[in-house]
Amino acid sequence: MKPVSTILAAAFGALLFTPAQADFIDTRWSVVGFTGEAWFIDPQSVIGQSQTFNRGYAEGVFYNCDYAGQSSSYTPYDNDTFFTNPEFELFLPLREEMTLSSETLFVHRVTCEGGGNPAKRHVMYPFVTNEARKSAWYLFEGGVFSLYNP
Fold first, then answer.
1. How many Å apart are CA 29 and CA 135, to the nearest integer?
2. Using CA atoms, how far apart are residues 77 and 102, in angstroms rounded to an integer?
3. Which of 48, 110, 132, 136 has the smallest number of Cβ neighbours within 10 A?
4. Is 52 within 8 Å of 60 (Cβ atoms)?
5. What share of the chain is helix, strand, coil (3-state, %, to 5)?
6. Residue 2 CA to its chain's centroid (Å)
7. pLDDT truncated to tens, each residue of the chain (150 aa)?
């Protein structure tokens, strides 16, 4: 029995020190820029604020969910496929920044069921990350907000 427990302990320890996956969004993101045409929002009122995800909780300038049925999924895209998709054309001015040190982009959809209250149901899409894991981008209105995880 001792060898099995040793192997399990070693495997568990390795998991603790494994780097975060590229699909990882659970952290505090700081809004650092905006590219595009702001339709209704004043981008300067958003820059400098933050968006946090932590398991089933989210709080921030774009999206909130207080353990009310939050779930998320993502779709990986190779860089060329992402930028040729018409759905993501507003990201084109950021192509160089987004593909730096990354061959794959991850498009996340984060939803909050709202704890049974339809007025509290929310969706955050598309929230995009890359393999570098320090930057994210969020399409909102007519432009893209850039976020950074220091």
1. 8
2. 11
3. 48
4. yes
5. 25, 40, 30
6. 41
7. 555 554 444 444 444 444 445 468 999 999 999 999 999 999 999 999 999 999 889 999 999 999 999 999 999 999 999 999 999 999 999 999 999 989 999 999 999 999 999 999 999 999 999 998 899 999 999 999 999 998
Token readout for 19 is 């780097």
Mean of the per-residue pLDDT values for the chain?
Answer: 88
- Which token pair is 21? 């996956």
| Pick from 51, 40, 66: nearest CA to 120 | 66
User: Is-contact 146 98, C-beta < 8 A?
Assistant: no
Instruction: Please give the sequence-ordered ranges of beta strands (E in DSSP) within 1-150, or none if there are none.
Output: 28-37, 50-54, 57-60, 65-66, 70-78, 104-112, 122-130, 135-140, 142-148
* HSE value, Cβ hemisphere, 13 Å, CA-based, for 26: 10
Question: How far is Cα 54 from Cα 26, in angstroms, rounded to an integer?
Answer: 5
Contact between residue 105 and residue 77 where contact means Cβ atoms under 8 Å apart: yes
Q: Which pair of tokens denotes residue 41?
A: 């929002």
